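User: Can you predict the 3D structure of Amino acid/amide ABC transporter ATP-binding protein 1 (HAAT family)? Sequence below.
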Amino acid sequence: ERTPPPPLILENATVRFGGIVALNDVSFTVEPGTIHAVIGPNGAGKSTCFNAITGVYKLASGKITLGDTVLSNTPPHKIARLGLGRAFQNLALSGTSTVLDNVMLGRHSLMKGGFASYGLRLPWVIKTENRHLQRAAEICDFLGISQHLHKPAGLLSYGDQKRVDIARALASEPKVLMLDEPAAGMNSTETAEIAQLIHDVRDELRISILLVEHDMSLVMDVADHVTVLDFGKRIADDVPSAVQKDPAVIRAYLGA
Ligand code: ADP
Ligand code: MG
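Assistant: Sure. Here are the predicted structure tokens for Amino acid/amide ABC transporter ATP-binding protein 1 (HAAT family):
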């Protein structure tokens, strides 16, 4: 079966924007095959942390590694090939393309020669393309959106579009799935469904999940481990039950 994913490790990661230290000397480890949440009040540095891991922002100092591979300061398009799959906080789907075509975009990083060679209808190309299409359809099935494969993504409900976005991230066969506020804009039923889905991804695909989330209730239900940020600094790093009782965390969330 699948080998367990490598650990994702942040060591003293620091990101600056001019005079602002948006991420200040932050360290934590996403253990293989776990759901790890990064939480914190608005402006805590969650998105900055997410963007540093996915290569959108450079570190001023510190290091990010996935197993033996150094990720820090690697451009985003290379990060996907190194094993990080990301879904977006604001949906970045092509509304007019079909669900299947949107998910196939996620396999781009796996396709030899990229999409260009797929314009040439050579027999081996068609065979490889069919294999990719089949896998993309399997992933959609896993996420419960297979009935929508050939519909324009823009016609789906918000919750289902979120699933398409996650399917596209999974289509790159990541070792770590990165989710930025997956429950944003969702009602409580949809949030519960997303929580179930995140568990299914961990248990059935056996990959790690790093989840950045403002909504404490989702995190407490779904995460194996939680890192709490406040003003760019790590203020707690523990199992959810311990984090929930931590006075520093309570203070940060109450804004006291
Ligand atoms: P969160 O996602 O936890 O709400 P952010 O990571 O978005 O927090 O922001 C952390 C801090 O960094 C905030 O003070 C924010 O204003 C600042 N910041 C984030 N991104 C940028 C940027 N691109 N340029 C300048 N400042 C930024
Ligand atoms: Mg944010």
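Residues 93-173 form one domain. The pocket of magnesium ion (ligand 2) is lined by residues 46-47 (CB under 6 Å).
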